[in-house]
Amino acid sequence: MNERPHHALKVVYGRLLRELALLPTDSQYRVNAEAIVKHRLLLVETVSRGPPPLLSQLSHGSIQEPDMQKLETLIGMGQLEEVIQQVIWVFGLDKTVYKC
Q: Which parts of the chain sit beneath pLDDT 50?
């Protein structure tokens, strides 16, 4: 289980966007995939925002991850762990598409 799914999603969505940028700009796959990834990344960033952590929270590791259930509902693709795995799978698929 990923202890920081919001952070993990930001990382994998960022990597996926960089990979998609390697495809031709007129590729329909790139256009559609970028739209979905950017929308989901916006959801992650929106739900992740909140009051900044206190310095004492940073030093004691007591920062709480943003509301996971809210993000799962907004994305609508299951638990965040499943969403992370889906993105990793798509990331591999994109590399295959890019090689073609």
A: 55-64
Domain assignments of the chain as residue spans, ordered by start: 5-49+67-99
- Read off the pLDDT of residues 55-77 as tens digits, 9 standing for 90 and up: 444 444 444 456 788 888 888 98
Contact 1, 81 (CB under 8 A): yes
CA distances to 10, 49, 80 from 70, in Å:
16, 13, 10
For 22, the token pair is 């390697």
Q: Can you give the pTM of this predicted structure?
A: 0.71
DSSP H stretches of helix in the chain: 5-20, 28-48, 55-60, 68-75, 80-99
CA dist., res. 38 & res. 59, Å (int): 32
How far apart are alpha carbons 56 and 63 in whole angstroms? 9
Q: What DSSP state is assigned to residue 100?
A: -
Specify the pLDDT at position 55. Answer: 47
Block residue for tokens 């031709």: 24
